[in-house]
């Protein structure tokens, strides 16, 4: 979209950001390496543990963590799962409207404060929805690796995703009264 913003007809172009995939964009066997890694801090771990009322002190008590077989506090598993699922949204469920299942969850290696985790997903299956003609059902397997390329968890997730013709969750970016201009920067 190009819009004139000055009397001398200078134009700026608004570039749309990534809007996510629709049902038609998924193909079985496609792999998405999600672009954002996330370093987990001790503060992240403590807050998430206490917020979710997990009373296992191995996650928030240094003495208990140090006396464990790991020799330090563990990152609470639901935090790792939440980050992994969040990392996958930009490539898989940006245009989804419902998760249908989370299956085969495996926690394969411990995660510690200071670890950076990365996730990637492979499309396992897709099919038309029999009850919603404007959507399809996609299943992916996501795995999460730490900074040493060790897999720390994996899961399968099935979700409803909009078809392109419907558009799904469109952006509600507010339109400013005064547009951005090169001269105003």
Automatic annotation (TrEMBL):
GO MF, any single term: lyase activity
Origin: domain of life: Bacteria
Pfam families in UniProt: MC_hydratase
InterPro entries in the record: HotDog_dom_sf, MC_hydratase, MCH/BMMD
CDD domains on file: FkbR2
Protein's name in the database: Acyl dehydratase
The species this protein was found in: Pseudonocardia alni (Amycolata alni)
Source lineage: Bacteria, Bacillati, Actinomycetota, Actinomycetes, Pseudonocardiales
